[in-house]
Design goal:
The chain is of the alpha/beta class. 46% of the residues lie in helices and 9% in strands. The strands form 2 sheets. A 6-stranded mixed beta sheet has the order 2-1-3-4-8-7, with helices on both faces. The chain has a two-stranded parallel ribbon with strand order 5-6. Strand 7 (150-152) and strand 8 form a beta hairpin. The two termini are 22 Å apart.
Length: 334
């Protein structure tokens, strides 16, 4: 069985890291987790000997026709010349792929190609914070959000700069195969399965070092171990030895969200894992995740995941069962 085809558009001088991330996430054989895994195809977006920003030659055995035929088209970050004047053939191929129903994804400055293709009018997108004002100026019909790590508008997804490529690629795995699979890929890559907050935490001047024992990390771990219990801002603030207002302000500065919104997100993610990996009834999942009742779980889960818990379980338990048998007897691929 052929896996979901991810076609990566490769332009001359593409930044090394942003090009490597989709190769790591989608190009490594992980059929021991889910079979079939993705089918990654590197597609030359322009003629000639293509090299990345470090001068390494990039083997691109596929072309733009393969890109048009893919299930997901990923336009990775571009060197500045390709940002300002993307290859005409690439623009046409992205348009055609979108017209035939492909999912279109940009990493960092690759969003310029999507904008030139006319796919972003009226949509909310993001890019590296250093390019946000420039992109908004060149494409005033596009809503550029410089604060988030990535955006998901269904058939169009965009990421911020550099490491945000990991966030978006893991998000795609989560959409396709569920939280448990995305978490396993993240573990093998030794990265967080989901980073909180947005670019703002990286744009602002660095905060003064906190005194020893005053970091938020112990509070977050403490809360994660008690998601089944009632959690309030007052409790979390006391645990951090801070006043409520100071704690809430520091929390937003660090994570880009409120303490209670963060707790809600963690409860939904725990519910996703339980729905995928256990036979626990929805009522039991609600109790174990701190939502209390099945009705409360359905309400909050639907707002975040856009589907009901029952539908989520049916979709992702079925996919997990289909990929349960390892592809071979060798050691798992990192």
């Amino acid at each position: 069985m052929t896996g979901h085809v991810v076609a990566v558009a490769v332009t001359s001088g593409a930044p090394t890291f942003e090009l490597a991330v989709p190769c790591e996430v989608f190009g490594v054989d992980r059929r021991d987790i889910v079979d079939p895994w993705y089918d990654l195809r590197l597609c030359a977006a322009e003629p000639g000997d293509l090299r990345n920003s470090a001068g390494m030659r990039v083997d691109t055995p596929h072309g733009l026709d393969d890109l048009v035929a893919a299930d997901t088209v990923l336009v990775t970050a571009c060197a500045r010349p390709a940002q300002l004047a993307p290859p005409a053939g690439l623009i046409d191929a992205v348009r055609r792929a979108h017209a035939r129903g492909a999912r279109i994804v940009s990493v960092c400055s690759g969003v310029y190609v999507l904008a030139e293709a006319g796919l972003l009018s009226g949509r909310r997108v993001t890019t590296h914070w250093m390019n946000a004002a420039d992109l908004a100026h060149r494409h005033p019909d596009v809503h550029v959000d410089p604060d988030v790590l990535y955006t998901d508008d269904g058939d169009i997804l965009t990421s911020a700069g550099t490491a945000s490529a990991i966030d978006l690629c893991l998000h795609l795995v989560r959409k396709d195969h569920g939280a448990a699979v995305a978490n396993e890929v993240a573990r093998r890559m030794v990265v967080p399965p989901h980073r909180e907050g947005g670019q703002a935490q990286y744009v602002r001047p660095p905060a003064r070092p906190l005194p020893r024992g005053d970091d938020l990390a112990p509070v977050l771990h403490w809360a994660l171990d008690r998601l089944h219990e009632p959690l309030t801002v007052a409790q979390l603030a006391r645990r951090a030895h801070l006043g409520e207002r100071t704690f809430a302000r520091r929390f937003r500065d660090r994570l880009g969200t409120t303490p209670l919104q963060w707790v809600l997100q963690q409860r939904v993610r725990l519910a996703q894992e339980l729905l995928e990996t256990t036979d626990e009834p929805v009522e039991g999942v609600a109790r174990r995740t701190g939502f209390g009742t099945a009705a409360n779980l359905r309400h909050h889960f639907g707002r975040v995941a856009r589907v009901s818990p029952q539908t989520y379980r049916q979709v992702f338990r079925h996919r997990a069962a289909a990929g349960a048998e390892p592809a071979g007897s060798g050691a798992a691929t990192p």
